[in-house]
Amino acid sequence: MVACSGGADSLALAAATAFVASRLGRPAGLVTVDHGLQAGSAERATAVAEWAGRVGFDPVEAVPVTVAGRPGGPEAAARQARYQALTAAARRHDAVAVLLGHTRDDQAETVLLALARGAGPRGLAGMPARRELQGVPLLRPLLDVSRAQTRDACAALGLTPWQDPHNTDPSYARARVRADALPALVAALGDGVVDNLARTARLLAADTAALDDLAAAALGAPQPRPDRVAVDRPVRDGGGLSVVALAGLPGAVRSRVLHAWARELGAPPGALSHRHVDALDALVTAWRGQGATALPGGVRVGRRDGRLVPVD
Ligand SMILES: Nc1ncnc2c1ncn2[C@@H]1O[C@H](COP(=O)(O)OP(=O)(O)OP(=O)(O)O)[C@@H](O)[C@H]1O
């Protein structure tokens, strides 16, 4: 089920989901929450629901919620009511997940806000691409997509997104980051800033997951991510590294192992970037028979017989 406010991000997400779902022959639903906080909010919810029905979503729900009387400020109260309504709708319809429209720009704003309040790595890890709330998986498929792209997508599809007045209300810290802080950083440091903040979140999310695994193991807790192969066999295998052993490591540990090994092979540390380490990682986690990875210093690494090995 897509959670759609009618704004550009979640409207683009909904349009993409409708497109993909019909081609996969899978049902997709849509839920829009009416917080009842602004004049015309019920009409907006009805308009979103009508559009959703026209483009093939089924079921479609416009859910009114009561925000008053909940703990916290108005923003927190609205969020709590919204997430409760979203997970309840998902459970009513046995949805496998709820899709949220947060973009790379939202992620960059989240990281900047976390940095400014002195958050630790968990806060700097930003919003996860996947988490569970009351047994319902919440997914954010657009974390690698920019807000400009969602606007362009809506324009290309002839959709008119709803503009949330909160997004431009300067009494909200996030709106000030969006309107002033991030544009100032981009002007001073270049267009890459948004992408790089989002990448920082990904890196810290991987570190945090690895440390959480260690903490869970120290407590003797069940494996938090049973899909991961638990391996404690040595990573070194002859002159190379064992793919099975590498695959069993938490991503953050694996990337450090690959970085250290690349340096051992002679790649100069200053020239070794995350792109090189990602390419080595792909030989383990996204193996499609690809060719050798070229590293700085003329080093090349390929995958042979279940091992990563230096090749000519
Ligand atoms: N009224 C709504 N009805 C349904 N879904 C909504 C609604 N408002 C927001 N969402 C969902 O949440 C996503 C994020 O929205 P927005 O950025 O406004 O909320 P936020 O308060 O920043 O999010 P969060 O509470 O997750 O931090 C949207 O892309 C959409 O998927």
TrEMBL record:
InterPro entries: Rossmann-like_a/b/a_fold, TilS/TtcA_N, tRNA_Ile_lys_synt, tRNA_Ile_lys_synt_N, tRNA_Ile_lys_synt_subst-bd. It is an enzyme of class 6 (ligase). Residues 1-179 form the tRNA(Ile)-lysidine/2-thiocytidine synthase N-terminal domain. GO terms for biological process: tRNA modification. Residues 241-308 form the tRNA(Ile)-lysidine synthase substrate-binding domain. SUPFAM superfamilies: Adenine nucleotide alpha hydrolases-like, MesJ substrate recognition domain-like. It catalyses: cytidine(34) in tRNA(Ile2) + L-lysine + ATP = lysidine(34) in tRNA(Ile2) + AMP + diphosphate + H(+). Keywords: ATP-binding, Cytoplasm, Ligase, Nucleotide-binding, tRNA processing. Gene3D superfamilies: HUPs. It holds the Pfam family ATP_bind_3. It comes from the Bacteria. GO terms for cellular component: cytoplasm. ATP binds at S5, G6, G7, A8, D9, S10. GO terms for molecular function: ATP binding; tRNA(Ile)-lysidine synthase activity. Belongs to the tRNA(Ile)-lysidine synthase family. NCBIfam families: lysidine_TilS_N (TIGR02432). Ligates lysine onto the cytidine present at position 34 of the AUA codon-specific tRNA(Ile) that contains the anticodon CAU, in an ATP-dependent manner. Cytidine is converted to lysidine, thus changing the amino acid specificity of the tRNA from methionine to isoleucine. PANTHER family: TRNA(ILE)-LYSIDINE SYNTHASE-RELATED. This is tRNA(Ile)-lysidine synthase. The gene is tilS.
